[in-house]
Amino acid sequence: MNVPTLLTLLRIFFVPLLVALLVQENVSVRFSGFQVTNELLALGIFLTAAATDLLDGYLARRWGQVTTVGTLLDPIADKLLISSALIALVQVHMAPAWIVILVIGREFAVTGLRSIAASVGYTIRASELGKTKMITQVTAVSLYLLAMRWPELHRWATAWMWCVAAFALLSAADYFRKFWRGVDEGVKRRRRRELLLAERERRRALAVRRSR
User: Fold this and answer.
1) What CA–CA distance (Å, rounded) separates 114 from 178?
2) Between 20 and 30 A from 199 (CA), which of 1, 11, 39, 117?
3) Domains contained in the chain, CATH given
4) Cα separation, 167 vs 133, whole angstroms
């Protein structure tokens, strides 16, 4: 197992720690005379996990260690991290539930589309909108975690969450467009080949019949 894959697994390992810190209210650690509360600990873990998302991809490409396992685990780890953080924020009455449902529903829909496309031999690559969505999600979650300590930041976090919803819808529409265009064209090409093969077989059978 290479280092990029280990970083991806580490991001998955951070998920239960993040949720546990978010739902616990009386967790704190004293460090150099400064008391670090549960929301700040959760923020540190979340940002560390988000950083591994950038680092594992960079190292995999830099060291030529792109593997099938890593390619499959990376998006799963991302979705687990963001979804668990958002659900926990709804649990502690910080994030609006309907936007969280929209974002998580989008993740399931896009994952399903990419799986269907892959089953017919078409790969839907991550778009720039999808990457922007990830950045807005990390920013929104970070602001909500800070707002647990400094409530005046809550309105800014909610504003960023609206941006998350907008980018989620736009990127989902982009994925649907790529899916429809790629899979539909692939099905048409396959159907055309099948019809050509059937026509050839028909003509061959007709020629054999005439030769008799």
Assistant:
1) 10
2) 117
3) 3-185 (1.20.120.1760)
4) 5
| pTM of structure | 0.78
Instruction: List, in sequence order, every residue forming a beta bridge with 30; answer none if it has no partner.
Output: 35
Burial 186-206 (b: 16+ CB within 10 A, else e): eeeeeeeeeeeeeeeeeeeee
Contacts of 193 (CB under 8 A, 6+ apart): none
Q: Report the pLDDT averaged over residues 101-107.
A: 90
- For residue 116, the SS3 value is helix
User: Is 44:18 a contact under the CB 8 Å cutoff?
Assistant: no
DSSP 153: G
Q: Is pLDDT at 127 greater than 70 in this prediction?
A: no
- Give the other-Cβ count within 10 Å of 133's Cβ: 26
Per-residue confidence (pLDDT) for residue 194, from 0 to 100: 72
Contact 52, 58 (CB under 8 A): no
Which whole number is the average pLDDT over 201-210?
Answer: 75
Q: Report the first-to-last Cα separation within the chain, whole angstroms.
A: 64
